[in-house]
Amino acid sequence: MNIGEPDATDAFDVIVLGAGAGGMAAAVVAATEGLKTLVLEKTGFVGGTMAVSGGMVWAPNNTKMTAAGLPDTPEDAQTYLDATTGEGGAALRRIFLREAPGAIDYFDRKTHVHLVPLPFYPDYYPDEPGATLGGRVMEPVAFDARELGAAFKILRPPLPEFTLLGGMMVARPDIVHFRGVFRSLASTLRVARLVISYAMQRVRLHRGANLVLGNALAGRLLKSLLARDVPIRLNTTTRRLVEDGGRITGVEIETPSGPRVITARRGVVLAAGGFSHNAELRARLLPVEAGMHSAAAEGDSGDGLNLALAVGGTIPDDNDSNAFWAPVSRFTRADGAAGVYPHTVTDRGKPGMLAVNQQGRRFTNESNSYHDFVQAMFRSHNQSPTIPAHLICDRRSLWRYGLGAVKPMCLRLAPYLRSGYLISAPTLAALAQKLGVDPAAVGETVATYNADARRGEDTAFGRGSNAYHKYVGDPANEPNPCMRPVETPPFYAVTLYPADLGTAAGVRTSGAGEVLNGDGAPIAGLYACGADMNSVMGGAYPGPGITLGPALVFGYLAAMHMARDA
């Protein structure tokens, strides 16, 4: 996939820095519009954080939801965003709402990127005006990675903890069948077919080829690049932007034989993934309590932002938050690599799970969005030690839902217990002692939770009281899909830390993705999208897919602007 080592004569219309969602989207559209395009990627994989994500794309009023009979309007979407976001990014949000339907249609008609609306996937604040219960959230159509040929090996793999049998991805609808594999003939047959198909693929492939979620979206974007013969140079670091007469005209990259310049006639797109792994920028822009914990791809180290700042770009200071948050637990993988497990929707909101701070008290609604959960950790920590916190469950819930890196129906808990990742004890009091938390407080907290669970009403935080809570819960659990008594020994816990899923603070841009200088004027020839562009949501998190949706849309808008630029 690498082009030959470039020299000073190499010239392209468009150079894209970064092969994540925004970068690949911009490159695909630029190439589709006839521009000679090059992608430079710092790591050895394409896909960025998108490839390890849930792959959801938030696109209000998209034509497919309309065709499916799921009503929405730009006015309703604007009303919802007005209720759930702040001032930061307001102008770009309006552009996003206006342009998203057309951008999604463009990808569907002209590329291999195909998305479908989910009939039931509520916005994160479903009781706010303008919210919907489904349709705005789109997911990628499953993708057969064998269509990539040899390039399948450069597609970033999903997190191992989100696969089965050493590399098998599981689609959302099939999770129910895996949970019911021993209780339903239909589920048994479905799981058997999936496992047999996976086993046959592994005879020739390094992992399963049936891609879903973010890996499917990354695979579809990569397929689109391959179809247009767009060169992708991996393991390439960009040293600086080349400027001539006030215009960005190319980039200088590192090569084994020294620095080389590549020219960009129309523009350079910064899409390097934000600054999740940049200690200096984290110290400047994120709460100190967040430390360095991140679930973002390792290449997201602030390269694009620093390149933009060096030529006059600016970072706004009016975001609600400068990162998108999720609680994570930390562990060491079998190969010795450090891992973090993002507790998004698989366990935390399920029945029989509750989170406590270091005083043994609940501090928030566990069924709220992952972003809100961590924001609550920060707020609570100002009053009582809450970082880290602990997620507690009993044997019954561990078996059915799993706990962090421990998968559902896990028969081998010993490795997790030996490593100290999973804490277990025969009683809640003994578990509290192992966690260094007051046993009496934990006992009182769980007793109150259990009484509420039996009644079906969370008197402390209202868990299970809205459509999103019910979505992340278990509809088979009654009377409250999010609560069940914690009472079946032994008891288990993992320790939770605040971490980012990606950063929200990026460079200020125009509606076409042009990077703006301190005076608000475009820096000619320089664009940004994805996490290098300041969040159009201003760091708020109103729904699933509010990072990937804008990444695709503004990657599209930047490329179309360059295509129109004579």
What is the CATH architecture term of the largest domain? 3-Layer(bba) Sandwich
- CATH domain class name of the largest domain: Alpha Beta
Main sheet characteristics: 8 strands, mixed
| CATH H-level homologous superfamily name of the largest domain | FAD/NAD(P)-binding domain
Uncertain segments are: none
By DSSP (H or I, 4+ residues per run), the number of helices equals: 16
Percent of residues in beta strands? 15-25%
Give the distance, in angstroms, between the N- and C-terminal Cα atoms: 30 Å
Shape label? globular
| Number of separate domains | 3
| Multimerization status | single chain
| Fraction in helix | 25-40%
Structure, explained:
It contains 16 helices and 21 strands. By secondary structure, it is of the alpha+beta class. It folds into three domains: 11-142 and 214-275 and 504-564, FAD/NAD(P)-binding domain (3-Layer(bba) Sandwich); 154-213, no CATH class; 324-500, Flavocytochrome C3, Chain A, domain 1 (Alpha-Beta Complex), CATH 3.90.700.10. Strands 1, 2, 10, 11, 12, 13, 20 and 21 form an eight-stranded mixed beta sheet that branches. Strands 14, 15, 16, 17, 18 and 19 form a six-stranded antiparallel beta sheet that branches. Helix 1 runs parallel beside helix 16. 54% of the residues are buried.
